[in-house]
């Protein structure tokens, strides 16, 4: 063991590692959201005319080359916080309407998406700290009201947010 050398990570190395990890988490979350949407679509029946208001539950401006890294990260973090808030509201509404006793594939996938989204928020927060220094990242205290047809919209919107970034 005396021969063993360790290498400390510099701030730059740590940021690269965090960025790589964050990208991998986002990619996995994208896949899990798509799977959740498929499970939800199989579970529910929709008439062809059911749509989400204007297709947007979370407003995310398109990526801009004029924004610096910090601003793009803040924009992404804000959108992800909105996604988590909507997802939590949708889950709470489903549990009230359907009860909490069911633990099928859909419910397991839903929990996985929620946990992965929280992990992604933590990692984006770490990237923000690396770029901007310590900052307080607080979710909005406003609870968003979720309608009956919004659960599908929440999942579709999360997939779109992850596609854009």
List the helices and strands and how they pair.
Layout (H helix, E strand, L loop, with lengths): L10 H33 L25 H30 L6 H28 L17 H15 L1
Q: How many beta strands in the DSSP annotation?
A: 0
The shape, in one word, is: elongated
* Average pLDDT metric: 75
Radius of gyration: 18 Å
In which range does the helix fraction lie? 55-70%
Low-confidence stretches: 136-150
Structure commentary:
The chain has 165 residues and is an all-alpha fold. The protein is built from four helices and no strands. It has helices spanning 11-43, 69-98, 105-132, 150-164. Residues 136-150 have low confidence and may be disordered.
Key attributes of the depicted protein:
elongated; mainly alpha; single chain; 64% helix; 165 residues; 4 helices
Please give a quick description of this structure.
This protein is an all-alpha fold and about 160 residues long. Helices cover about 65% and strands about 0% of the residues. It has helices at about 10-45, 70-100, 105-130, 150-165.
């Amino acid at each position: 063991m005396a021969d063993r050398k360790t290498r400390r990570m510099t701030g730059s190395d740590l940021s690269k590692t965090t960025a790589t990890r964050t990208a991998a988490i986002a990619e996995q979350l994208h896949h899990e959201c798509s799977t959740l949407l498929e499970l939800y679509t199989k579970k529910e029946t929709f008439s062809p005319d059911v749509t989400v208001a204007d297709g947007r539950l979370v407003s995310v401006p398109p990526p801009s080359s004029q924004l610096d890294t910090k601003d793009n990260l803040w924009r992404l973090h804000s959108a992800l916080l909105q996604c988590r808030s909507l997802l939590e509201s949708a889950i709470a509404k489903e549990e009230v309407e359907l009860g909490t006793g069911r633990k099928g594939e859909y419910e397991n996938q839903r929990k996985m998406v929620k946990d992965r989204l929280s992990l992604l928020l933590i990692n984006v927060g770490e990237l923000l700290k690396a770029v901007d220094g310590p900052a307080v990242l607080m979710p909005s205290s406003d609870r968003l009201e979720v309608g009956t047809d919004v659960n599908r919209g929440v999942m579709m919107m999360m997939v779109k947010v992850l596609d854009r970034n």
